[in-house]
Amino acid sequence: MTPIRVPADTRVTFKVTSADVVHGFSIAETNINTMVIPGQVAEVTAVFDETGTYGLVCHEYCGAAHHTMGGSVEVVPKDQYEPQEVSN
Ligand SMILES: [Cu+2]
């Protein structure tokens, strides 16, 4: 899964949806999480105070490949951030 890169000290919005079954979108070490439901777009917002790499996990058992789901969110200094669109 392509890392999601976001700027520190900035309000960011994650828009997530599913192409197959219900998943969960959780960012480790934070209280950010939402259900990821086919046919719906869920939005969660956050401000990361510290730079670094945070684990991204699916918190819903979504099938036999559930254990392969995972990724990361890289929080970079605001002046080093370049916008990206990620579709995993
Ligand atoms: Cu999943």
Give structural notes.
It is a single chain. By secondary structure, the chain is mainly beta. The chain has one domain (4-76): Immunoglobulin-like (Sandwich), CATH 2.60.40. Helix content is 0%, strand content 42%. It has no helices and seven strands. The chain has strands at 4-7, 11-16, 23-27, 33-36, 42-47, 52-57, 71-76. A five-stranded mixed β-sheet has the order 1-7-6-3-4, with no helix packed on it. Strands 2-5 form a two-stranded antiparallel ribbon. It is globular, with a radius of gyration of 13 Å. The N and C termini lie close together (6 Å). Copper (II) ion is lined by residues 23, 58, 60, 62, 66, 69.
Keywords:
88 residues; mainly beta; Immunoglobulin-like; two-stranded antiparallel ribbon; globular
- Described by the principal axes of the CA atoms, the overall outline is globular
One letter per element, helices H and strands E, the order comes to EEEEEEE
Oligomer kind: single chain
**Sheet with the most strands, sense and barrel status:** 5 strands, mixed
Level-2 CATH architecture: Sandwich
Strand order of the largest sheet: 1-7-6-3-4
- Taken together, the total number of domains comes to 1
- The CATH topology corresponds to Immunoglobulin-like
Work out the number of β strands: 7
Instruction: Report the average pLDDT across residues.
Output: 93
End-to-end Cα distance: 6 Å
CATH class: Mainly Beta
Small molecules in complex = copper (II) ion
Q: Could you state the CATH homologous superfamily? A: Cupredoxins -  blue copper proteins
Task: Give the % helix.
Answer: under 10%
Unreliable spans are none
